[in-house]
Amino acid sequence: MGMANLGAGLTAGDDMATGVSGLFRTRYPEMVRLADLLGADDPEDIAQEAFAAGQRGGAGQADH
Predict the structure, then answer these.
(1) Which one-letter DSSP state was computed for residue 41?
(2) How many CB atoms lie within 10 A of CB 58?
(3) Which residues fall within 8 angstroms of residue 32, CB to CB, at 6 or more apart?
(4) How does pLDDT run along the chain (64 residues), one tens digit per residue?
(5) What is the maximum span of the chain, computed from C-alpha positions, in angstroms?
(6) Is the pTM of this model over 0.70?
(7) What's the confidence (pLDDT) of residue 15?
(8) How far apart are CA 20 and CA 36, in angstroms?
(9) Residues 44, 32 contacting (CB under 8 angstroms)
(10) Residue 5 has what pLDDT?
(11) Among 28, 31, 38, 49, which residue is least crowded by beta carbons within 10 Å?
């Protein structure tokens, strides 16, 4: 799946949480593999923290 397909299937009525959930399900395994290749001690935690930070950052920007 390429980057151009990230929004595929989402409509204007979908809320941010639904989009983030789909992105997480789609990209989490890739993020874990990347963190592992980069030598992370806990690649699952690194991937989860990256998504959590992205969601916090995205929510803060939507308020401005």
Answers:
(1) S
(2) 12
(3) 43, 44, 46, 47
(4) 444 455 555 554 556 667 778 888 999 999 999 999 999 999 999 999 998 888 787 544 444 4
(5) 40
(6) no
(7) 67
(8) 22
(9) yes
(10) 54
(11) 38
Burial of 4 (0-12, 13-18, 19+ CB in 10 A): exposed
Per-residue pLDDT, 11:
58
Opening angle at CA 14, ends 43 and 6, nearest 5: 45
What is the identity of the amino acid at 19?
Answer: G
Which strand (E) or helix (H) includes residue 13? none
User: Tokens representing 53?
Assistant: 């930070």
For residue 51, what pLDDT is reported? 87
Stated as kind and residue range, the H or E segment containing 55 is helix 43-62
The number of beta carbons lying within 10 Å of the beta carbon of residue 55 is: 17
